[in-house]
Predict the 3D structure of the following.
Amino acid sequence: MRNIRYMFLAFLSIFTMVFAVYGQEAKQEAQPASAQEMKKEAAAPEAKPLDKEEGHEHAQGKEIRMVATIGADGAQHVEITGGEYYYDPNYIVVKVNVPVELKVKKTSGYVPHDIVVKAPEAGIDFKTDFGSKEPAIIKFTPTKAGKYTMYCDKRFLFFKSHRDRGMEGMIEVVE
Ligand SMILES: [Cu+2]
């Protein structure tokens, strides 16, 4: 029966995907504990060791600031990369009443991400998935100065949400 073979293949690829995401999430989940141990071991006062083991510089809470410039088309262009579990940049400064074009791209990997900002009072209201091959283009015009949180609302099974793991940032609208 052909159908059974296709079903088996479909099941196998779904299983592989789920397993890959599980592996990625579980690896990240285990991180805080080991980071704490590392801190205990290296009790040197001034040393704030970079997490070289993981090979990334997207430490939780570390601000990567970007001030948007207005392009020839009159819009403020901002490019964001999303990965496990961060946005880069994660602090974006834009001018009020000038259109913004966000281009959001994902790093490679199986873990899905999105970007959410819920500030309709300021003209910013979106929730968009983005991929590594097709970046999302998000257009809006901020109408009110202030600070608005952006975050990823994805979560895998019982693991901590991506937001809780540091996948959030700020859009600051200035006069
Ligand atoms: Cu995410």
About this structure: The chain has one helix and eleven strands. Confidence is low (pLDDT under 50) at residues 32-55. Residues 85, 113, 152, 154, 162, 167 surround copper (II) ion (CB under 6 Å).
